[in-house]
From TrEMBL:
It comes from Salvia splendens (Scarlet sage). Pfam families: Phosphorylase. Belongs to the glycogen phosphorylase family. Allosteric enzyme that catalyzes the rate-limiting step in glycogen catabolism, the phosphorolytic cleavage of glycogen to produce glucose-1-phosphate, and plays a central role in maintaining cellular and organismal glucose homeostasis. It is an enzyme of class 2 (transferase). It catalyses: [(1->4)-alpha-D-glucosyl](n) + phosphate = [(1->4)-alpha-D-glucosyl](n-1) + alpha-D-glucose 1-phosphate. This is Alpha-1,4 glucan phosphorylase. The lineage of its organism: Eukaryota, Viridiplantae, Streptophyta, Embryophyta, Tracheophyta. Keywords: Carbohydrate metabolism, Glycosyltransferase, Pyridoxal phosphate, Transferase.
Length: 684
């Protein structure tokens, strides 16, 4: 309808604040209330964008009550709590997730209908919160969901980047990056916490007190201010927090004199840059001073906050029993990025709280755990000792002492995945086989898959202008573009397939399985080879898709701007997906599990190869792809042969049935029992 129509509808619904509205009419009134009285837009506009913000604010009303209740419940019970520290979170869109978890999806769909909108039209307005680079960031977000779902007292800590992962535009010259301005208007999900602010120091020097204790003084001090994002769980009232830190200048540090003198840059200080952009991660070789500052900023702010909460929850006792700290606090470090937490906790305990080394070290050891996410040496960040001594002089003293003391102690660290190649063994599926053979399920399964493929085909047409056939086999590879992930091998396979089709007679072609190959992913802005791969995929697609002789048998699509919400359309519509990283290079991979769960068959590298001939093999593969390409094509041929609809559907059902193990709820349950040793703490 037109703007006038929308306003007319709005006028018929009374704007009434009702934060806990449950029925559609009351929800519609509460949405209208926000459209009128939350001062972001003119009340005379109710276009989809304004409708999204008003809807999100009304959902936030519902969340805030649960979020406050959860906080006071934890405060009262004072359970052991986990804090998940991560430099990345790939949250995606929050509205669909929130209405689903609050179990108000139908009520909201109904309320919006009264306001002249479909829920889907409104949810599509939301910008993805892309505060992460890839698998590591999405895993962190899945973990937050699971912690809330399992009613675990667990919070996330991260940074509130002004600009998240760039938006990928495809032009004639290939990928172009533009800033994804997720905070362009505002985020309806964050709650600025003006009461939660901590000082963070950089540079300066270490002073030795008369009693021999040490103090870090001087340098630059900025402030970390908290923004909380409520994280609702599924089928529970527990609503946890993702606390994102933003850098702010202290009023006394703002140099008005310099500003008046026209020196705006120095007057604005470095605080404005600390949280400006998400640093490119996922195996790039960059490690710069700003990144180090970001990492320390996250660690220091989070640990000061954790210690403050520990003290607040002493229950009126004056004396702090520091030995109790590890029975109240578990800190999980998501990869090496927040590992400065270790010397920072030591510093806070020794220099601020007056503990000795041994006691502080014992507490730190029992509090902090670390997950490793990579086997690529270039992804393990390094800084020169000169830089470290300059920026964090007290931490370097502590790090050197740790190094001296624990050099010969073997610490246990967990990786993200266990080799699970035998998990798909037939006996695991024995219980499910009768369902896969059941006469009704395969037909229902196929029609659900076809509907998802149709949605995906519509999406591809919308973003690329290329029409694809939902009855062709959908073969997908979506992940960051990287040489070790071998999108190049995939596209070479596609070229080979194209050439073979060209050589065939029309009759022979008709006997082949029509296929749509989709590749999507972002290439880091200065990673030339990755950008060339993006361009190659899109150029090969341009040739194949316009070749009338073969284009009803093969289409090649580069799906632009791969992100969480694009994945939500691609993964359900997939039938075959590619996880073909060079053996020994991928720590785990996570989208593989999402594909399998959605009834997609996967082609994956058999990593056991790596165990046999290790480095020799890697060297060979990196010299040229051809030996692997032949194997890959062999595999691809076999899977084409398997394209007997009935057989495929059965494999697809079994794939979903066997995926339970890969639920992040299961993973987090295991973390809670085995590492954090925390119990659930559900709201009564
Ligand atoms: O590359 C790894 C993936 O193999 C893994 O599945 C994912 C989640 O554990 O983490 C990715 N990763 C590793 N992202 N950044 C790094 C290095 O910091």
């Amino acid at each position: 309808g037109s703007t006038t129509d929308r306003i007319k509808i709005l006028e018929k619904i009374p704007p009434v604040a009702n934060p806990q509205a449950k029925d559609p009419a009351a929800i519609a009134s509460n949405i209208n209330y926000h459209a009128h009285y939350s001062p972001h837009f003119s009340p005379y506009k109710f276009e989809p964008e304004q409708a999204f913000y008003a809807t999100a604010e009304s959902v936030r009303d519902q969340l805030i009550k649960q979020w406050n209740d959860t906080y006071s419940h934890y405060h009262k019970v004072n359970p052991k709590q986990t804090y998940y520290l991560s430099m990345e979170y790939l949250q995606g869109r929050a509205l669909t997730n929130a209405v689903g978890n609050l179990d108000v999806q139908d009520a909201y769909a109904n309320a919006l209908k009264q306001l002249g909108y479909a829920l889907e039209e409104i949810t599509e307005q939301e910008k993805d919160a892309a505060l992460g680079n890839g698998g590591l960031g999405r895993l962190a977000s899945c973990f937050l969901d699971s912690m809330a779902t399992l009613s675990l007292p667990a919070w996330g800590y991260g940074l509130r980047y002004r600009y998240g992962l760039f938006k990928q535009l495809m032009t004639k010259t290939g990928q172009e990056e533009i800033a994804e301005d997720w905070l362009e208007k505002f985020s309806p999900w964050e709650i600025p916490r003006h009461d939660v602010v901590f000082p963070i120091r950089f540079f300066g020097q270490v002073e030795i007190n008369p009693n021999g204790s040490r103090k870090w003084i001087g340098g630059e001090v900025i402030q970390a201010a908290a923004y909380d994002v409520p994280i609702p769980g599924y089928k529970t009232k527990d609503t946890n927090s993702l606390r994102l830190w933003e850098a702010k200048a202290r009023a006394e540090d703002f140099n008005l004199f310099e500003f008046n003198d026209g020196k705006y840059e120095s007057a604005a200080l470095l605080h404005s840059r600390i949280c400006a952009v998400l640093y490119p991660g996922d195996a790039t070789e960059d490690g710069k001073l700003l990144r180090l500052k970001q990492q320390y900023f996250l660690c220091s702010a989070s640990l000061q906050d954790i210690i403050t909460r520990f003290k607040e929850r002493l229950g009126g006792r004056d004396k702090i029993l520091w030995s109790e700290f590890p029975s109240k606090v578990a800190v999980q470090l998501n990869d090496t990025h927040p590992t400065l937490s270790i010397p920072e906790l030591m510093r806070l305990l020794m220099d601020d709280e007056g503990l000795g080394w041994d006691e502080a070290w014992d507490i730190t050891n029992r509090t902090i755990a670390y997950t490793n996410h990579t086997v690529l040496p270039e992804a393990l960040e390094k800084w020169s000792q000169t830089v470290m001594w300059k920026l964090l002089p007290r931490h370097m003293e502590i790090i050197e002492e740790i190094d001296k003391r624990v050099r010969y102690t073997l610490n246990l660290v967990n990786g993200v995945a266990q080799l699970h190649s035998d998990i798909l063994k037939a006996e695991l599926f024995s219980d499910y086989v009768k369902f896969a053979d059941n006469s009704e399920l395969p037909a229902e399964w196929e029609s659900a898959k076809l509907a998802s493929k149709q949605q995906l085909a519509n999406y591809v047409l919308q973003v690329t202008g290329v029409s694809i056939d939902p009855n062709s086999l959908f073969d997908i590879q979506i992940k960051r573009i990287h040489e070790y992930k071998r999108q190049l091998m995939n596209i070479m396979g596609a070229v080979y397939r194209y050439k073979k089709l060209k050589e065939m007679s029309p009759e022979e072609r008709k006997k082949t399985t029509p296929r749509t190959i989709m590749i999507g992913g972002k290439a880091f802005a200065t990673y030339t080879n990755a950008k060339r791969i993006v361009k190659l995929v899109s150029d090969v697609g341009a040739v194949v898709n316009t070749d009338p002789e073969v284009n009803s048998f093969l289409k090649i699509i580069f799906v632009p701007n791969y992100n969480v919400s694009v994945a939500e359309v691609l993964i359900p519509g997939s039938e075959l997906s590619q996880h073909i990283s060079t053996a020994g290079m991928e720590a785990s991979g996570t989208s593989n599990m999402k594909f399998a769960l959605n009834g997609c068959l996967i082609i994956g590298t058999l990593d056991e190869l790596m165990l046999k001939s290790e480095k020799k093999l890697v060297k060979k593969i990196s010299l040229f792809l051809v030996q692997q390409l032949t194997k890959f094509l062999g595999c691809v041929k076999k899977e084409s042969k398997d394209w007997d609809r009935k057989k495929w559907t059965k494999m697809s059902i079994l794939s979903t049935a066997g995926s339970g193990k890969f639920s992040s709820d299961r993973t987090i349950g295991q973390y809670a029992n085995e590492i954090w040793k925390i119990d659930e703490c559900p709201l009564p």
